[in-house]
Specification:
Two copies of one chain form a homodimer. By secondary structure, chain A is of the alpha+beta class. The first copy, chain A, has three domains: 76 residues, Arc Repressor Mutant, subunit A; 33 residues, no CATH class; 40 residues, no CATH class. Chain A is built from seven helices and five strands, in the order ααααββααβββα. The longest helix of chain A has 16 residues. Chain A is globular. Chain A starts with a helix and ends in a 9-residue tail after the last helix. Chains A and B meet through helix 1, helix 2, helix 6, strand 3 and strand 4 of A and helix 1, helix 2, helix 6, strand 3 and strand 4 of B.
Amino acid sequence: MACGIAQALERIGDWWTLLIVRDALFGLSTFDEFRQSLGIPRNTLSTRLSDMVEKGILICEDDPQDGRRKLYSLTDQGRDLWVILLALQQWGNGWIYGPERVPSYMADRETMTPIEQLSPRAADGRALTLEDVTMIEGPGATPLLKAFFDMLNAENAPDTDQSN
Amino acid sequence: MACGIAQALERIGDWWTLLIVRDALFGLSTFDEFRQSLGIPRNTLSTRLSDMVEKGILICEDDPQDGRRKLYSLTDQGRDLWVILLALQQWGNGWIYGPERVPSYMADRETMTPIEQLSPRAADGRALTLEDVTMIEGPGATPLLKAFFDMLNAENAPDTDQSN
């Protein structure tokens, strides 16, 4: 499906990927560290790590201290997933835990206080709520997708268009 | 696992949820509309929709125009997933498509231009990169989690602590 969301989900593959990225962001790097942190079966972890290397999310190198051991670290592409993790954490903390029961926050290292709630913004800096948002075509849109967005944005156009 | 990220992933359940939310955000509401848009098997869609209703992401009501038909719409909790979708879209557009091939953007309805790249910020408004970020305990942290964060933040503390 020609959609950044669908393609991102496909490349990520499954939830383990995001939990492995979370752990890698905070310093874990070996098979055993991931296995212990995640309680994930060995086979699943092994497949997942290879898949993440193949997809360009992780790099796998020999441990210079111990040649039989591999060290996994995030590529730039993998590191960039952190904003998705932050969005998931803010949603989970808000809707599942609530302020009294939050187990953890991503925090600003300088002040050790939680990161502000993510706030989507327009090009001119205005904060956007979902009501302000629509979907538009990009340069790679197929004719079908263009037609869909034309329809979507005609339907949703401001009051002048309500006669449709 | 006591972690907003892990709990968010568990509640979301699988990728279909996020694609259904995407479609619901942009106006789809019936079983047949979701099935057509997603090319998802009937049984899978049926299970997924019930699960999303049970978890409080969707509301299911009778269609006032056609009593045999159900209409699905997002709860506030479901609508709040849009920031996660935006983060996924920006990552997918950047790392999978690249600027020339992007099929679609979420856009500001006022100017019909793409939403700015999400920018995590500290409480005082400073833009944060991953290097500026750590994980800290919340009020609901277990003793084990607290110990982990103490260790993490001791290891990662600024230069004064490099002797460890």
